[in-house]
Amino acid sequence: MILDLLSTDIWQSVVHEVTNILSPHGAAGADGATRAYAPSDFSIHFFLQLAVIIVTCRIVGWLGQKVGQPQVVGEMIAGVILGPSLLGLFFPEIQGAIFPKEMKNVLYTGAQFGVGLYMFMVGTGFRADHFKSKGKSAMFVSLAGITAPALLAILITPWLMTVPGLFAEGISRGNATLFMAACIALTAFPMLARIIHERGLSNSALGTLTLTAGAFDDAVSWCVLAIVLATFGAGAGVAVLAIAGGLAFTVFMIFVGRKLLAPLGRLVEEKGEMSYTVLAVVMICFFLSAFIMDAVGIHAIFGGFILGTAMPRGKLVEELKKKVEPFAVIVLLPMFFTYSGLNTRMDMVSSASMLMVAGVVLVASVLAKFGACWGAARLSGEDNRTALGIGALMNSRGLMELIIINIGLQKGIIGLPLFAMLVMMAIITTVMASPIFEWVYGRKARESGELGAVGLDKATS
C-alpha cells in the first residue's frame, strides 16, 4: 500500500515537472502566485528556441527554393511565422511558452552576434579590384538610391501625416519625412549579401557594385535615423557620435587596420592552417569591431563587415570560411530573422483604407529604389540588363528594414499601423528581388556561362 502511494506520488511529481518545464522556476512574486525566471530557465528556453528556429528556417527555406526563392528569404518568412503574426495568432499558448517576452533580450544578443559574424564573413569576400573598377558606378547608384526616396518621402509624408495613428502625436513634418526617407532608401545589407552569395554573384563585378552601393545606402539610412532620434529628443550627440564614429572607424581600418592584421595572414600562410590562437585573435578583433559600431550608434554588422574587408586574403580567409561560416549561417543567423519576426504584427492593416495607404507606400518605395538605381546604373555606363539586375537587388529591404522601424516604434516615432505597412513593404520587396533578378539578368547570364549555379546549390546544404 505504501509502495503504491509512493509510486503514485512519484508519478504525479514527474508529470508535474514535465508539464511545467517551460514555466518559470525562480523566486515567487509579490502576489505569491507568479514566479520569476531562474537562470536555468533561460538556458532551457534558449536551446529549445534554437532547435525550433533552425528546423523552421530549414523547412521554410527548402519550400521557398521550390518556388525560386533563395534560402535567406525563406528564413526571413520563417521568422515572421514564429512570431505573433502566425504561430502566436493560431497557437498563442505554444508561442508564448517557447518565446516568452522575458527571453527576448537573450535572443536579441544572439541575433546581433549571428548577423554581425555573417557580415564579417561577407566582408572577407569583398573584392577591392571590383570596387576600384566599379567604384564610380557604385557611388552613382547609391546616391540615386538615396536621393529619389528622399524626394518621394517629401511628397507622400504630408499626406501620410493626415492619416490618424501612422505617426506619433506631435512629431514634426521634418522628422517624419526623414524617417520615411530612411525606410524607403534602405537596402537590406545582410539580406542582399545572402542573395548575392546564393546567386553566385560574390566574385562578380555586379555583386561587388551592388553590395557596395547597398552598404553605403544603409549607412546613410542609419545616420539619418540618428539625426531623427537626436532632434526627437535623444540629443545632438547621438547623431554626431554615429556619423563621426562610423567614419573614423572606417578610415582607421582602411589605412591602419590592414597593416596591423597583415602578420596574421603571413602566420597562417607559413603554417598552412589556422591555429586556435590566430582564430582567437580574429574573433577578439570581430567582437571589438562590433562593439565599437554598436557603441557609436551605427550597428554591429557594419563593424563586422568593415573588419572583414581589412582581413588578409588568401589562406586565412579560406580557413575562416571552413571554421566559422557554416556555424554562422546555419545556427546564428536564423536567430536574427526570428527576433525581428517576434516584433512583427501582420494583422494591423485590415481595413480598405489602410490597405490603400499600404499600397501607396509599397508602390512609392519600389519606384523610388528600383527605378532610381536602374536609371543611375544606365547613366554610369552599364548595359540595360545589368542595370535592371542592379535595380532588382537594390530594391530588397529585408529585416534591416524591420530593425529601423522597430527602433521607430520603440522611440515613439511611428504607430503600429505604419509599422505593419512598412513590414509588408519589406517582405514584398525582398520576395520580389530574386525572381526579378533572375528574369532580367540571372537566367541569361547562366545560359551564357557568365554565372554559375553554385550559390544556389550551396543554399540547400
Describe this protein's structure.
About 80% of the residues lie in helices and about 0% in strands. It is an all-alpha fold and about 450 residues long. Helix 2 packs across helix 15, helix 11 (about 235-270) packs antiparallel against helix 12 and helix 12 (about 275-295) crosses helix 13. The model is unreliable at about 455-460 (pLDDT under 50). The protein has helices at about 1-20, 40-65, 70-80, 85-90, 90-100, 105-125, 130-160, 175-185, 190-200, 205-235, 235-270, 275-295, 300-310, 315-325, 325-340, 350-380, 385-395, 400-410, 415-445, 455-460. The protein starts with a helix and ends with a helix.
Short description:
Helix content is 78%, strand content 0%. The protein has 20 helices and no strands. It is globular.
